[in-house]
Amino acid sequence: MLRFLISRVLQGIVVIFAVLCITFLLLRMAPGGPFDRDKEVPEHVKASLERQYGLDQPWYVQLYRHLKSYATLDLPDSYRFKGMGVGEIIAQGFPISAKVGLAALGIALLIGVPAGSLAALRVNTFEDRATMLLSSLGLCLPSLVLGPVMATLFGVKLRWFNAGGWYDADDWVLPSLTLGIIYSAYIARLMRTGLRETLSQDYIRTARAKGVSEGVIVVRHAAKLAVIPLINFLGPAAAGLLSGSFVTETVFQLPGLGQHFVAAAVNKDYTLAMATAAFYALWIVIFNLLVDVLQAMLNPRITLGHA
Questions:
Q1: Of the candidates 118, 129, 113, which has an alpha carbon nearest to the alpha carbon of residue 180?
Q2: Distance CA 118, CA 116 (A)
Q3: Number of domain units in the chain
Q4: 10 domain-assigned
Q5: What is the per-residue pLDDT across 30-58, written as a single tens digit (0 to 9) for each?
Q6: CA dist., res. 142 & res. 56, Å (int)
Q7: What share of the chain is helix, strand, coil (3-state, %, to 5)?
Q8: 217 secondary structure, DSSP code
């Protein structure tokens, strides 16, 4: 167990530093720089800023400086947000993104798991077909479409919530519902597939032959293996929800972390783009580790030494 954890932590560190390198190189290959959008800045002022931030140095020197700052946890300042460190920016936006993301994940599980289970237990019935039809609709409906519909209906027409912004205690509801409904479609399909495959196994037929009730079979025997595909999906999904959704936060005008992902790349804010990418990679590593541990707990055929 300890050897497995140490191995995964070391692999995670390598992954995070690889993400930092790839993000930096991709931004460097793109035309322009972090101060090119400031058209009113004279060339000599721009050159002074580049010297101040070390942008006049060779790319490999800049990359080494960035990697060293993350290795020593001495996070750099943002190029676009003057006087603010990237750690401070993440600390301001992450609580909002996390609140919305956790609520969305809870909504998705509350809708998707029962719906997928019902569809698996009543194959080729009206319930099954209706669930799959709605889940297919959810898969095809992006947050760019569903978000404005939710804001217009519940924010503008019914006035139950604010259509945008982060002012009241319930401003998380509409963006969380938007994300939760979309992710519930994935969860419902995965739960249906996993439970159907598990219920067709030989040991389930044996349990039925022994007279075990269907409820006991589903809850005690089938559910543990049926949720493994769902857990594999929830790892990166939870990391993405916690790190913030750019589209949803833009639609509902939330000051979360998601707005910085694309904006940092567009503005060539190397430090902020690298920080947000590394932060997302960190959550991916953490949740993948949790997924491996949960798989070993639910499936006795899986050992952590071979996960």
A1: 113
A2: 5
A3: 1
A4: no
A5: 777 676 665 666 676 667 777 777 777 88
A6: 42
A7: 75, 0, 25
A8: I
